[in-house]
Every structure is written in C-alpha cells, then in structure tokens.
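Hello again, I could really use a second opinion on something today. I owe you a coffee for this, so here goes:
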Amino acid sequence: MNPTAHTDSFTRDNLPPEDQRPVFLNTLPALEFPAVLNCVDPLLDAHILKGRGDRPAVRSLDERWTYSELAERVNRIANLLVEREAVKPGNRVLMRFPNSPLFAACYLAVLKCGAVAVPTMPLLRARELETIADKAQVSHALVDSALSAELEAVGVPRVLESDALMAAMQDYGTEFDAFPTASDDVALIAFTSGTTGDPKGCMHYHSDVIAMCATFSERVLKPTADDVFIGSPPLAFTFGLGGLLTFPLYAGASTVLLGSAPPPVLADAIEATGATICFTAPTAYKVLLAEDLLGKLGSLRIAVSAGEHLPKPIYEEWSERMQATMIDGIGATEIIHIFLSMTGDDDVAGSTGVPVPGYELAIFDEQMNELGDDAEGLLGVRGPTGCKYLADDRQTDYVRNGWNLTGDRFKRDADGRYWYVARNDDMIICSGYNISGPEVESALLGHGAVRECAVVAAPDSERGHVPKAFVVLAAGQPPSDALSDELKQFVKDTIAPFKYPRHIEYIDELPRTQTGKIKRFALR
C-alpha cells in the first residue's frame, strides 16, 4: 500500500488484515493508478482544465449547473469544511440528503478535501443512523434541513444543515486544490445491512471510485459527453453513486438528479430533459412499459437494470417495444458497482451476461471447489475492486481464497454467460432495496403485542418480493386487522419505512429445527 495522506488514520487502521483481503487484479491500462490520486480530479477538475467548464454537469427539474458552476460550489463547500468546520483529511463525514445538485456538490467536496464520505439513505431513522455513526466514528455531518430531525438524537459532534450551508458557503473562496490523497486512501464507507441486520461498512479507495468508471461505464456503457443520465437510485447507494454521479462526470456528460423518482415522475423527467441513459430497478421498468408512460421514453438509448434480478419477460417486452438497449447487471456494495452484465451485443434473454472487462468470475461449491459449466454454485468475483469491511469479522465470510463471494447462486453456460439462480441468504430484495428480515423482526419485537416473529420474502407481482411477517402474539392479545395496521406503522416509526412488512400472518408457534432454529424455508 501507499503511505496514507490522512492525518486521521482511522480507516487505514481498520482495514481488514492483508491476508483477509481479496486478490486485486489490474488487467486494463486504465487501472494503472498513480500513487497520489484524489478521485475528484478526473471527475471534475480535469474537465475544467480541458476547457469544458461551460458544458452541462448536474441538474434537477429546477436547477442547471455547468461544470464550472459545479466546481465553484464544490470548492466553496470544501473551503468551508476545512476552514470553519475543521474537517481533517481522514475524518468521516456523514451525509443525509435526497438526490440533488447540492448533494452532489457536498459529496465531491468531502472527497476533495480528503475526508471520508459516509452517505446515508434519507429514509433511515435515528436508531439506524446512530449505529452507522458509531461504527464509522463520524465526526461531522452534512444534512438536508428537512431531514435533520432524525439526526438530532445521534450525537454527531458537528452537524451542518443545508440552509446554513448554502448561506455560509458564499463567504468562502472558489479555488481549492484537491487534497493529495493516496490512491488507496479510503474515499467512502458505504453501509449495507447484511442478513443479520447489523450493518457492514464497505470501505472503498479513491482508486475504486475511478475503477468502477473505467470498467462498467467506459467498457460496457460507453457514454459520450452528449449523454444525459437519469434514474431512481439514491446517491447514498453505490448503484446511484456510479450511475448518477461518477459515470456521467467521468465521461464529461451530464446527470439529472431527482429527489424522488417513482416511475411516473421518472418518465416525465426523461421526456422533459431528453435523458439518454437510465438507471433503475426491474420493477420500475415494468411500470414504465405502461401505455401512458411509454411514449415519454423516446430519448433513451440505454436502460440499465440492476438492484435485483431482471425477469426475462420484462427484458423481452422492453426489447420488443423500445429502441433503447436494456442492459441487465449485477453489482454489490462490497465491490462498489456492476461486475457482471449484458453488453448490448448478442445478449440472451434471461442471462445476466458476461464478466465486465477487468473482472474475473467463477462458480464454486461450499468447499470452494471451482465448478464447471451448467453447475449451480456460489458466485465468486475478483477484479480491481473488492470487499474491505470496516473492522468486521464477517470479512472472512465474504472473502475466501482471495475471491469475493457475493451471496448469489449462479450457473455458467458453455458460451461463458452467467445465469442467476437465487440469493444464498435471507436478504429480501424489494423494488431494488435490500431489506434484512432479522432487522424487521427486531423492530417488531419491540412492540408489546409481539411474542415471537419471523420475516421472510413473499413474492409480489410489482416489487419482486416484499417482507412478510409471521407473528406469534403475546398471551391474551387477539389478532385483528387493526393490530396489523398498528404493527406496520410501528415498524415504519422504528426503522426505514420501506422495510415494513407488507403482509402479517398470525400463527400459534414458529416452526423450528431440533436445534431451535426457525425453519424459514417452511415459512416461505
């Protein structure tokens, strides 16, 4: 590793031991990174130096910023963070915003001054934020003023709300040289709730941010500076970070950031902005194919589907009715973005595709024996990025023999295409959002009427799967529709609202194995 430039060495000190890290591959010229690299340089400053400052960069439905205007705001915020808020290189800065140009500027400013970004979903509640802030030892927070209430109880030492930020940033300079971070200094910690419900912090270097641009974006999407990106995933997800911020900026293109993007809103925005590349989940594409929305999508040339498996009928209907190429892909927060995808050429409906250039894939059995064609097994991945959990014993579960094991089961055909089989754990994927069944169970158990419960994935025609709770009530507590509504609201008030169980079934006892474990397969 290169010597760290962070004066706060927390992230470097809490990387997994070297013998627990995956094998990293460097198979493309674009992955030859210098020892000193701040990822904001190629994403933003390089375009200014090349005279592209007047080109469009980020916009919402109300604002439009050129590259020069974005750079000016990023530099003002970076100066404010360093001069007034005393942010030091390596400090962790929690961010809590809906997608917006301001969020993009704050994200880039945190990275540019050498701090470590800790983006969080706007829907998270205080309990979830507190866990993240504690694990990452967050010292500062930037938060949208409308979302500040849940953060008040968390106890982050320095919190700056967006209203105050926008007023104060005007007093700071428009020039700021990117802090000379090492290419393998940590740039961000992306948290994901695992199957246990205990969130894992996935640390990614400055070089990782550029690597995802140089692999999937540059080699599969192949965007031009004239492309306009749009989509629904939050920038707090690495799916959104790549698809809606770093990919367009790396290509010198522009991006449309929507605070909320359900399919009807997304369709209207595509029509209004002339967007050409869209990122969203399969369930959203299913809705977009409705007759009243389809005519608004004519400007699209590429539709990227990820976040959950793309059902074959959606791909086939899209391909039949739309000129835009649909590209299915699979990524992971641990690997920062898509590593396996369709290519837009010779794709086969139902297949997830082939390895993204720069990555190697293999299928293994439980003993890590590599399997041949047509055998179902664990998907292993290695490439320029990989899992680096923040001080977490589960590192050895995800990384084995140098391979990242994603928790997905796949098979590979004789042509080298990979076919999705199923998840290998209890994660519920609902409209592209990962929901931990045990986390929902923990929330339900906080209600006095609940004695025991188990939450599993239930099939849903619109969302793929939804959480379903099997509940054993406390003695003397009768089941009722009113109680079900109360329990759903209780979960919404305890954790992120999208995680609440859509269905509740009351049973006398949970099925268990002889060792006392809940038989979730029986409930499914």
